[in-house]
Amino acid sequence: MLVSYAAPGVVWADDIYTASDPLPREKISLPTERIPLPGVLGEIEKQSDGTFSYATPPQDSEAIPPVSVTVRNRAPSDLERQTPVKFSPAGRTVAATKMADTSPGAEATAGVNASVNGYISDRESGETLLAANVALLEINRGASTNNSGYYTITNIPPGTYTLVATYIGYQRYEQEITLEEGENRRINIALAPKSLQLDELVVRSQAEEEEQKDIGRAHISTQLIKELPAVLTPDVFRSVQLLPGVKAASDFSSGLYIRGGSPDQTLILLDETTVYNPSHFFGLFSTFNPDAVKDVQLYKGGYPAKYGGRIGSVLTIYNKDGNRNETGGTASIGMLASRASIEGPYKYGSYMLAVRRSTIEPVLRLVEDAPETFYFYDINGKLNFDISENDRLSLAFYSGTDVISWPIFEDAVIDLNYGNQTVSAQWRKIISDKLFSTVTATGSRYFNEPQFQFAGTSFESENNVRDGSLKADLEYIPNEHHTVSVGFWGGAMTLRLQELFDKEYAFDRELYSRYASAYLQEQWKPSDRWMATGGLRINAFSKGSYLRLAPRLSVEHRPAENIRIQAAYGRYNQFLALMTNEAFSGFDTWMTTAEDVPPSYGDQFSLGLKTIPFSSYGFDVEFYYRTMRDLFELDPFVGDNAGLDYAEQFRFGKGYAYGMEVFLEKQVGRLSGFVGYTFGITRRKFPGFNVNLPDEPRRGRFYPPKYDRTHDMNIVANYRLSQRWSVSAVFNYSTGQAYTDPQGRTQFSNLPWGSSNRDAFVIGSMNSSRLPPYHRMDLSFSRSGRFFSLGDAEWQFQLINLYNRSNIWFYNYDFDENPVEREDVSMLPTLPAISYTVHF
After folding, report:
1. CA nearest 644: which of 687, 580, 574, 594?
2. How high does pLDDT run on average in the chain?
3. Pick from 314, 453, 284: which is nearest to 374 by CA?
4. Pick from 266, 375, 564, 568: CA 20 to 30 A from residue 30's CA?
């Protein structure tokens, strides 16, 4: 092997050395530390029969990151990606030339360039993979798949390249391709999942290990959701709550409190459809069946112009398309719920159907004062139709319901019936190698129908949300420096609230509104080290005739190969608010803006640093600050809203939040997991609330909401014990919940207007006291095996709250005693759980 090489900045050698023997394929092991290029080439000479020849020796200052090099009958691409050198072999002839100029404007002098595009999918199931990375190594050009699993690389000079695709948890894909002038090559890539190799040692360059992550964005794998210890059943929201910046109100709440925001400030999308109440079992866990879910992405803040309608964050969930290669499914039996799913191909595409139902009823019969009736169910389905190579249609639906009947006293019964239904139809089209479009029609319904029976008197309530919409998105990629996105989302929604007392209407109101939004966004990459994404979104809401502009901007700089510095700003608007009980989500009621009820809005600022400090590790730090203006909620001082105008029922306030998030992650190897820490502060203020006595009564003071947590830390670890056994552990620690402490009581007796004693209480400032710190550890063991000859199977054994920490949920005060007695009401004790899952 003879190579002619010259250092940058000098005349390149024209000498070409030839030999007749073919070059053997060899794997070269290099030192793991960063070493100069002469050392790299010298080490290759020692481990092979080749010789390097230089016109001018390389400089020692040209340090090369750790790489693995395969010597074969083509260019050693790992070295090419680390140097401005292109190796061109011909048999045993290897010459060195300068890399092509890929700076902005360079393509203007070239001929008609080529492009490559296609879908990236799982080789076993055919499921498209979202946010997978694909690149051409020789010119250091690449892209990530969009939410449909589609990628495109345009403006490629004709030539021979190495096409590489990577995705966490999958084997690296590599293919040599030759592109002609003007060629538009469709290459659909199927990645193979990594098989379990306990002693496997993978050596890759740092650039290959980096996952595409925007500021404030997190990706949660469905495999992690199923492996983590969970309260009786795997849950999407419980897994999301482990991320920095995301908090839980209690063990009994799956609500997402993200960067100081309440749950209604997070937009939740299932296959592009809004879900208004994503909870089951009094809010204990979410409505999303992990067997049906393909991808979960969270934008904690600073999200792009494509999304809107909430002032906080966005959670996007995509259901599986269904196995395109073979029919299969799963069946799982658990203590709280059991699940079953089936998926497979058919003549025109694929399908998926998943069901889940509670199985806790036999256990409840053994519990005193338990509900007489309790069950919930979920049904998820998806049907895909491949019209042509460039056109795909999909139809997805979801339906979930909770039914509860609970006699709370001898002559009092609560009946609850609430749930969600969604449907979406999407058309995805590859218009050209540079233009991709999606058109989606959605429908969503949330219903909540509680009934109370007390001593023969009934109280009934009905809260319904119906939402239908149409959205369209276009993505245009003219070249490697620009990506332009434009879209529209419009629809109509109806909110209906009825209250009946003893079969007579006490309140009946229906709110109808049309809404529309449009956005324009461009991502600009002037060089490999800089990227800027700017966008503008316009929002319109007919109820109150509101029109709002929302600019967005994010910037990323790479001072080094493994360091990314990011900053983002955005203005966000919200036209809905959720009236909810933090302890129980069964009575959630959505309200909307109207005349004299302006929409909420806020600004978000983020600054982040993302790096790969060691092989297979990721380390992120983010700082955020956000404002919340024109927050509206029902006024607690309005006793009877009968006869009041709609706007007179509300009070209006503001808030702010700021904090820091730290995230250390290890994604591959026998031991994997992450450590997340959050320092966060959030405050609210409403006129006439939390008032200092000498102050003006309508002034009010800032106070922490109940979900404010100054410190929050989560440690997640997964360890593969053997080919069959694995163990997972989760540890949580957080500052105690804020609450208002009663500080004294004055009792009045012998009052002229009544015979009973009356109490007057002295309380501290709003939520100025704290419950004890919260901490808990959960443990899970999994054993894989076979279910006879029918398929793979897995046992899962869990211990929730391993050391039986008595975490305080709230204090209960008995005012019949003198002095007043306080009782601790605790959350979950130690709970064992077991489940069995079969894959067929």
Report:
1. 594
2. 82
3. 284
4. 564
> Could you give the 3-state DSSP secondary structure of residue 315?
strand
Strand ranges inside 74-209, DSSP E: 85-90, 93-98, 114-122, 133-136, 141-144, 150-156, 159-166, 173-179, 184-186, 189-191
Q: Which residues contact 112 (CB under 8 A, 6 or more apart)?
A: 181, 182
- Using DSSP, state whether 335 is helix, strand or coil: coil
> What pLDDT shows up at residue 147?
87
| Interacting residues of 431 by C-beta distance below 8 A, sequence separation 6+ | 390, 437
> Looking at the predicted structure, is the pLDDT value of residue 783 above 80?
yes
List 662's β-bridge partners, or say none. 621, 677
Q: Cβ(649)–Cβ(507) under 8 Å?
A: no
Token pair 């309790």 is found at 374
Three-point CA angle 530, 535, 536, nearest 5°? 160
In the prediction, which pLDDT does 286 show? 85
Which ranges of 264-334 would DSSP assign to H, the alpha helix? none
What is the average per-residue pLDDT within 183-187?
92
Helix (H) or strand (E) holding 472: strand 457-479
- At 295, list the tokens: 């991808």
Identify the band that residue 118 occupies on the pLDDT scale cut at 50, 70 and 90.
very high
Vertex 564: Cα angle to 563 and 569 (nearest 5): 160
Triad 221, 225, 228: Cα angle to 5°: 130
Q: CA distances (Å), 588 to each of 274, 416, 450, 726, in order?
A: 16, 12, 10, 39
| Tokens at 175, concatenated | 């293919």
Give the whole-angstrom CA distance, residue 152 versus residue 165.
Answer: 12
* Cα(519)–Cα(550) distance, integer angstroms: 9
Greater pLDDT, 823 or 818: 823
Q: 225 Cβ partners below 8 Å, 6+ apart?
A: 234, 235, 236, 239, 290, 293, 296
Report the run of H or E that residue 204 belongs to, with start and end: none
Query: pLDDT class for 141, splitting at 50, 70, 90?
Result: confident
CA–centroid distance for 46 within its chain: 48
> Average pLDDT, stretch 459-479?
92
List, in order, residues 6 or more apart from 111 with CB less than 8 Å away. Answer: 157, 158, 181
Between vectors from CA 754 to CA 751 and to CA 759, what angle results, nearest 5°? 65
**For residues 17 and 53, is the Cβ–Cβ distance under 8 A?**
yes
- Tell me 735's DSSP state: P
Which of 51-55, 56-60, 745-749 has the highest mean predicted lDDT (pLDDT)?
745-749
Q: For 697-742, how does the pLDDT look when each residue is reduced to its tens digit (9 = 90+)?
A: 667 889 999 889 999 999 999 999 998 999 999 999 999 999 988 8
pLDDT tens track for 604-650: 999 999 998 887 788 999 999 999 999 998 888 877 666 778 888 89
Pairing status of strand 600-611 against strand 738-739:
unpaired
Q: What is the pLDDT of residue 764?
A: 77
Contacts of residue 503, defined as CB under 8 A and 6 or more positions apart, other chains included, come to 458
Show the beta-strand stretches assigned E in 194-348. 217-220, 246-247, 257-258, 266-270, 273-274, 279-280, 285-286, 293-299, 313-319, 328-333, 337-346
Determine contact, residues 176/113, Cβ cutoff 8 Å: no
Can you give the C-alpha Rg of the chain in angstroms? 30
- pLDDT mean over 759-785: 88
